Amino acid sequence: MWPSLLDQFLSRFLQIGSLRLSMPDGTLHRYGDGTAPEVAVALTDPDLPRRLVLSPDLTLGEAYMDGTLTVGDDDVRGLLTLLLRNLNRPGARRRGWIAALDTLSTAGRRLQQWNPVSRSRRNVAHHYDLSGALYDLFLDEDRQYSCAYFRHPDDTLDQAQRQKKAHIAAKLRLQPGMRVLDIGCGWGGMALTLARDHGAQVLGVTLSEEQHRVATERVRAAGLGDRIEIRLTDYRRVTGRFDRIVSVGMFEHVGLPQYRTYFGKVRELLDQDGIALIHTIGRAAPPAATSAFIRKYIFPGGYVPALSEAMRAVEAQDLWTTDVEIWRLHYAETLRHWEMRVSANADRIVALYDARFLRMWRYYLIASELSFREGRQCVFQIQLAPRVATVPLTRDYLYPAKDVVPGQQELAAE
Amino acid sequence: MWPSLLDQFLSRFLQIGSLRLSMPDGTLHRYGDGTAPEVAVALTDPDLPRRLVLSPDLTLGEAYMDGTLTVGDDDVRGLLTLLLRNLNRPGARRRGWIAALDTLSTAGRRLQQWNPVSRSRRNVAHHYDLSGALYDLFLDEDRQYSCAYFRHPDDTLDQAQRQKKAHIAAKLRLQPGMRVLDIGCGWGGMALTLARDHGAQVLGVTLSEEQHRVATERVRAAGLGDRIEIRLTDYRRVTGRFDRIVSVGMFEHVGLPQYRTYFGKVRELLDQDGIALIHTIGRAAPPAATSAFIRKYIFPGGYVPALSEAMRAVEAQDLWTTDVEIWRLHYAETLRHWEMRVSANADRIVALYDARFLRMWRYYLIASELSFREGRQCVFQIQLAPRVATVPLTRDYLYPAKDVVPGQQELAAE
Asked: Which of A89, A167, A312 should one mutate to test binding to chain B, selecting the residue with the greatest count of B CBs within 10 A?
């Protein structure tokens, strides 16, 4: 019954591209119109057709990770591209099984995202306390674990990450001595840049013990202990006033029910003449639940906002939204770079963990890349200020007259 | 009873600045802390205290217009600044009478904004079919009746309006021969610019007979009849496909219940490789009703959106939001220029209409200016595209390397 149901679903769903599917009983099925991408998939566990019918999104990732679903030439990108193009083709009906393939039902979403301080710490440890050696194997030299900014298509990853930090620094309009709060400071790269290149006094907060340890050590090694403090705490426990607040790749973990708390805290901590810059993955489509696979294995408690959801929470505060930049495809490029590095270092990652972990990590990076390339994901940079005219009235200040990479001016002046 | 109630309300409300109020019975009252702005108001109609208690926002404008409420030195800007600063002071309670002073209750908002094609035409005639002679007396040379773009504080109005059109044209990334739809084309200035400077084929639609007549005549006079058609119709009745859609200062008239219809129509009319630019007044605060005075006398059926409201309707469509620019204070400057021109031409406006009309118009312009300067109003430019990469992946294209005024390049090349 289950193989036959799966066969029916796939026949209706796969209209473009080509899929060759080998069922657990060895029978071979073909779907699609014969065009590229052409992908071969083999199922070896007899229970997989049932699981793929009942919970396609989660099962796909789990079975690939477990090695019970294999893809010809290990072409996961081809397989996910094929599925996403069929999901996104005009006239595709996003109901029933097809909707479940895209994302899990939204039922229970609020509860899953109920992130009090204690649970937030657990969710963060799940991902960010992984061995630092892993992140060294695929991130850039500064361990920026968020979307890079490709000003030109052939920028290197290191260059694009430097450009990201410089673009954010420009939006913050820093002056030497300003007090900056970095909410979700990661391994300290942004804090180091803002302190070293702009003379800022930075408090970076993270919930990850591993990030806290590494960032603190980097600050010490850079001799910037008098300008940077890294604190292992929840942003909701921070007190005081800051001239600038920056938060890169942290809002994704906040969860919809806490959006008002988040922006309320940003407002409370921000000086009346302050500027804040929130950089987050976003969704250019109606609100929807996070992928079941990503939620279970990669980011428990996470939620990707539609712009309307983030703005509704901002509007409840005494804050001006002074700019919204929407980065499309920059994260697809970033993730492609990361995945290439993971593949180049496959042996070392297997030695660190095992082959199953390597497959999980590649699946996560490729699925994420395609959610930006073929799906509706993007990045929002939301700039906020309590006063109407703290930020200049045109965006000319962000785009210097000569075509220099922002940030190099400061470096050259040293 | 009513004068005493009004006195109580004002005593509680007016904490900063100074108000000297002469009641209809001649008694003099003082409110505030003695600081600037210092304003003197006289009420001459015995019914005004009652009306100001029951419906402060509407009554204030009506009584000033009728001449039963006078302001010392005719300083309406001072009076409204005083009221808005007290409304916006930290800790001010926006309840009861104070909330009513700010805006009318939101009750019945949906019905008031029910704008079918027939009613839209009536609402538009109310405002835009006023004598062209009036608009000539306060708008710029091109009759741009929307927010100008002040790249430098001392730009003239004409210059700032040219910069607005050039900035929008840059966001549209026009190529010669492209079919452009201008929803709410006004007196044709944008259509003329896009056809003349960028070689576009423009269809402009308006519901105002006066605008249609003037715009058609201007197209004929410019010899651009082969490139521009001005049509007297509702945008919902337009069919076909356009490479670009531009809509400047029209979305304010759409009304919240029609937002999905509006963006659905934009999506339907936009080519798959198209770009749309929606320019609208917005509200950097939670959704709220439009001022009672503005709604009754100036723009029946209008509604100023919060960004979350506009975005929610966009997200329901198969569209990428590729940029959101938020103009603060540009409209305050624009309105200040308009009001200065109205005041300079006061005699001619009284001759066209009467003194009551002049007062109504000045009150409208000043109240609007202050809603941008002291209140939470701004302008949103929302750029939309069906495909992820039609618009370049950085905003560098909008900010040319040399500090030239965009648009002058094209003019210089002629």
From this structure: A312
Assess contact for A28 and A20: CB atoms under 8 A. Answer: yes
Residues of chain B contacting A312 with CB distance shorter than 8 Å:
306, 308
Domains in chain A and their CATH numbers? Answer: 2-102 (3.30.1050), 112-413 (3.40.50.150)
- Residue A404 CB partners (closer than 8 Å, separation 6+): none
Tens of pLDDT along A30-76?
A: 999 999 999 999 999 999 999 999 988 889 989 999 999 999 999 99
Confidence of residue B95 (pLDDT cuts 50, 70, 90): confident
| Cβ count near B286 (within 10 Å) | 13
A69-71 and A28-32 as β-strands: parallel, antiparallel, unpaired?
Answer: unpaired
d(CA A166, CA A197) in angstroms, rounded, equals: 9
- List CB contacts (< 8 A) between A398 and chain B: 395, 399
- List CB contacts (< 8 A) between B399 and chain A: 395-396, 398-399
Contact indicator for B381, B278 with CB cutoff of 8 Å = yes
Residues B399, A403: C-beta atoms closer than 8 Å? no
Looking at the complex, report in whole angstroms how far the Cα of residue B265 sits from the nearest Cα belonging to chain A. Answer: 17
| Beta strands, E only, A136-195 | 179-183
**CB distance B324–A324 less than 8 Å?**
yes
Range B56-69 average pLDDT = 91
- Whether chain A has a CB inside 8 Å of the CB on B136: the answer is no
